[in-house]
Amino acid sequence: MEKVTNVAVLIDAENVASHSAKQIFDEASNYGNIMVKRIFADWSKTSVRGWKEEVNRYSMTAVQQFEVQARKNTTDIALIIQALLILFEKDVDVFCIAAGDSDYTRLVRELRERDKIVIGLGGRNVNQSYVNAFNEFIYLDAGEEKPAAPKRERGKGGKAQAAQPAPAPQESEIIDNKRKSDLHNIIDRMIDNNGKAFYAQISSEMKQKYSDFIPKNFGCNSFKKLMEKLTPYLKKYSIGTEADGTTMYLYRSSKK
């Protein structure tokens, strides 16, 4: 019988929003059987009140950690201790850590050194060195917050006027210049060696450099879709397909 892959989900409720609960467990279930579900916080704080309903919905074990002294990372320490106990006491293969705190970087390294797969989940404002400590890092959705109603301003004569809406922010590029450069270097090296840069190899090498370089973080459901999205940055290459019709690669285009 094939061994079941067991997963532990550990959530720092003090720096992950409660509306991310469904996404966290949906993602964690993709890696195997969720054996452990634990969430950590000082539950006397009003800031984590939204998690209480999710704790019941997903049958999590809520761990209470009172804040002994202001600005001390007591919740972080509690999560780290529990992760190490799980490591040595339970048959867990994958750790999913939902937190945006770089204080967990050392824990991630220790788990990976013991041949565990460690998946990070957090916001897009986290430190890149923390992101790259994981095997994979998945960005949590921002949630569906309704925009605030425009304020009413007083014009001449005291009449109320609707405030002008702020201009929409320009959409940022899908990848930054450093990633563009690394992506081109990887593709060029593969083509120099084999004449082809296969999608699977590109994906593997880019993820070794950037743990968050996975399709879902770019709104794609496959690496093929992600490569299509990146096409504007890959103009000097053309797409090829092997005889099996599914294995895709890039080669240098003859077009100038």
TrEMBL record:
Matching PANTHER family: HTH OST-TYPE DOMAIN-CONTAINING PROTEIN, SLR1870 PROTEIN
Molecular-function GO terms, alphabetical: RNA nuclease activity
Domain annotation HTH OST-type: ranges: 175-254
Gene3D superfamilies found in the cross-reference section: 5'-nuclease, LOTUS domain-like
InterPro entries per record: LOTUS-like, NYN, OST-HTH/LOTUS_dom
Taxonomic superkingdom: Bacteria
Name under which the protein is recorded: NYN domain-containing protein
Location of the region described as Disordered in the Swiss-Prot/TrEMBL record: 148-177
Organism: Candidatus Borkfalkia faecavium
